[in-house]
Amino acid sequence: MSRTVVISGGGTGIGLAAARTFAEDGNRIVLIGRRPEVLERAAAGINGAVGCPADLSDPEQAERAARFVCEEFGAVDVLINSAGGNGGLEPGPEHPDGALTGTAHDWTVNFRLNTLTAVLLTEALFDHLASPGGRLLFLGSIAARRGSGSGAYAASKAALHPYAFDLARRLGPRGITVNVVAPGYIEDTDFFGDGLPEERRRALAEETLIGRAGVPGDVAATLHWLASHAAGHITSQVIHVNGGAERGN
């Protein structure tokens, strides 16, 4: 049976791979993201997909996106919060004032990109998640366990864990599962901007136990399974997709 699948950050990378995977089942796909041209191009290449441009860190735009979804499709069967990214690629403060200005910007922009986008869209669609059988999924990161250098990105992803656990308790009685998928190093995404030096890329791949970097399809397949009937008794979990580079517990 066709389901409505909403994917934030669905225009590129893992979100786009997930959209293609879910579309293969004949599902209705709604892609949400900040860049209209990227969404239009992505939706054009996926049967049954529509794009909804919105900056999900803005409450009014998140509400507008949720209203569009509900008016066009009704209940949401699967919500995948994939929007986010590397805050270090965002423009810095125009007029740095003091040593802490850059630090405040780094932490603020990472939480806006990776935490607030997921929280606002989830809360806007909370009452419209299909009951029973709905699936709520968040994209975390290996960095939530091991850090990310500055700490800001890692902390913004780690913040999704307790939020997801609380949601699992609230939504469990409605028959809705809530899980986090935490990828390791994934190639073919925009996360590193212009890319990594070959030496660094090789080192990250060699950290895995299987000797290769992940690809968006690895994560998309995990999201697809967690959204399936077969995973109906799995909730409030962090599922690691990193080739063994970091052990889960």
UniProtKB/TrEMBL annotation:
SUPFAM superfamilies assigned: NAD(P)-binding Rossmann-fold domains
Similarity annotation: Belongs to the short-chain dehydrogenases/reductases (SDR) family.
Domain of life (superkingdom): Bacteria
Domain Ketoreductase: residue ranges: 3-189
PANTHER family in UniProt: 3-OXOACYL-[ACYL-CARRIER-PROTEIN] REDUCTASE, CHLOROPLASTIC, SHORT-CHAIN DEHYDROGENASES/REDUCTASES FAMILY MEMBER
Pfam family, one: adh_short_C2
Protein name, UniProt field: SDR family oxidoreductase
